[in-house]
Amino acid sequence: MSATAERERARRRIEALRREIRHHDYLYYVLDQPEIPDAEYDRLMEELRALEAKYPEFVTPDSPTRRVGGQPAAGFRTVRHEVPMLSLENAFSEADVRAWDQRVRDRLGVAGPVDYTAEPKFDGLAVTLIYEDGVFTVGATRGDGIEGEDVTANLRTIRSVPLRLHGSGWPQVLEARGEVVMPRAGFEALNRRARERGEKTFVNPRNAAAGSLRQLDPRVTAERPLEVYFYAVGKVEGGELPATHYETMLRFREWGLRVTEHLRRVDGIDGCLRFHDEMLRLRPELPYDIDGVVYKVDRIDWQQRLGFVSRAPRWAIAHKFPAQEEITRLRDVEWQVGRTGALTPVAILEPVFVGGATVSRATLHNMDEIERKDIHIGDWVIVRRAGDVIPEVVSVVASRRPPDVRPILLPKKCPVCGSAVVRPPGEAIARCTGGLYCPAQRKNAILHFASRRAMDIDGLGEKLVDQLVDKGLVKDVADLYHLTHEQLISLERMGDKSAQNLLEAIERSKETTLARFLYALGIREVGEATARALADHFGSLERIMHASREELEEVPDVGPVVAEHIVEFFREPHNREVIQRLIEAGVRWEEHEGRPSGPGPLDGRTFVLTGALQHMTREEARERLAALGARVSGSVSRRTTAVIVGENPGSKLAKAERLGVPVLDEQAFLALLAHPERLNELLEEGES
Ligand code: 9MJ
Prior knowledge:
With 688 residues, the protein is α+β, with helices and mostly antiparallel strands. The protein folds into five domains: 3-66, Helix hairpin bin (Helix Hairpins, Orthogonal Bundle); 80-320, DNA ligase/mRNA capping enzyme (D-amino Acid Aminotransferase, Chain A, domain 1, 2-Layer Sandwich); 325-407, CATH 2.40.50.140; 454-584, Orthogonal Bundle (DNA polymerase, domain 1); 606-687, BRCT domain (Rossmann fold, 3-Layer(aba) Sandwich). Helix content is 37%, strand content 20%. Strands 14, 15, 16, 18, 19, 21 and 22 form a seven-stranded antiparallel sheet that branches. A five-stranded mixed sheet has the order 2-13-10-3-9. A four-stranded antiparallel sheet has the order 5-4-7-8. A hairpin with a 4-residue loop joins strand 14 and strand 15 (342-354). The chain is elongated, with a radius of gyration of 34 Å. It binds 5-amino-3-(furan-2-yl)-1H-1,2,4-triazole-1-carboxamide (9MJ). 5-amino-3-(furan-2-yl)-1H-1,2,4-triazole-1-carboxamide binds next to strand 3 and strand 8.
């Protein structure tokens, strides 16, 4: 390319970069709604700086490189910072940090290690607060470092901002500087509420903090979970501060100005680097986001000797952590099926280095999130990887959408087993209806099937189920009934005796009840109580399998959602086939005509059972009560009609006594079953 053509190309690129940076400045500083990660913004700025350095004839006074930070937004009074609010030079590697230390020592003429302070670098919004005679008078944002916005009224709403300094000895005028942050938990809660109300959400805690502090109505700010940490001094008049940064911060604390508990005085640059590693480890546990650590020369007289370069002090440096958010292309979407049948969309990404690792897969959470964020295949997306948390796609860069993007479609069939996928209207999660049949759900389904309150197969635990499934011996629950002694003893840690015991437990489980069997099938939202209600109401499996939604909804506790789950489960041919094979293997229960429930004599009454009964099992007791229209609950409350007490009762008896709930012994309980109309009489006798 000729020099002229190259120059022309550079000019056009410079203009394009400026347009793009201005757009992002607006999104960031005015709307508090950035579209690209900081790392990407920094790269755009760096490219522009490099081009302007190479072609100084194209530099204009309005270039984004000529300005630092944001301009004050309309609506707030501007405040001029008498002492400019500096930014920090960034270091990204140990070499950068060592070079800085060398420069510091050269300038000071110090051969040995310098005393530094080390502290976390908060990722929030820098603010300055002026205290006159110990009283908070004016507070402002950093703005462009020279002028900021007057956010006094908003800062007053933050609990950790003292309106009056504590103790004594503060200068007549003290300007305390620090950072307003929003803890991650508060941020999540804020976004959750916004989502529920269909309002816009914030991209990250820093933008939420900035957006909250820059509200024209302080009542809105007051509702937001903001906190402040102080770390620097601006103007000081009529008093003296200690000779070191560290001691100054200790005084801050005495005066009620919150300083991070992680502030340390360290020995030389090696101390700084140790602190960096320690904070990097601690980072995921901190309640708020930090994006690095800051080292400062501790002695104030040395800070003064070192002075400034452009807008950054020579005596401090920010040692940044790897960016937790990066931008990359979404190549495709895969669907993962979890143990409960939930389908999770997984983003297949162009590999990108983020949060200290190369990421090529990230979660898209669910279909709702995909729709809310309007993500398409082929889009540029922001990927976040924080600590050991699964990387996630945070948002899409809408302004960079290529023309040929494709929508992300929920598969109609389960990618693992081919069963139908359903996503009830209004629900975020789509699920495979394969249930017992789907390999992805198999281990979970088998464990549930064998559990004590379901088919009660003693000895069939997690380790064993893992082996049975992994070795291909059990593909669905019906296969359990065809296991042989030989197969079992081939497994790890399975002796002759335990194999025998397991086979016997499997054999015993064949004799069951309809309620247990229904519960064991693991139909969504069909718990024990619902299974029992279904069994009582219909009396036979055949009738339940053929019941319509309306018929199912006649059962107490079965609403439209549960009815739909039941219908779907039995509609799936795989599930019907497994049930058929279970019956063929010898699983059996007693059926009856069904007792469509009407109000019984104990309708509306709630009982709690505790301790062992002599005349019946707890299950029978429960069924007898249910047949009379009563409900049986697992916990005692003031609304409990009575607690039925057997041998060795548990803490429920004590609770009943505390709440004054009547207690019935087994004798009284049998009387009640025989004569439910005598309830009140029996209760009076059992008053506790
Ligand atoms: C942050 N952002 O956490 C400074 N900072 O000191 C800390 N910023 C700073 N110190 C002087 N911890 C200028 C900026």
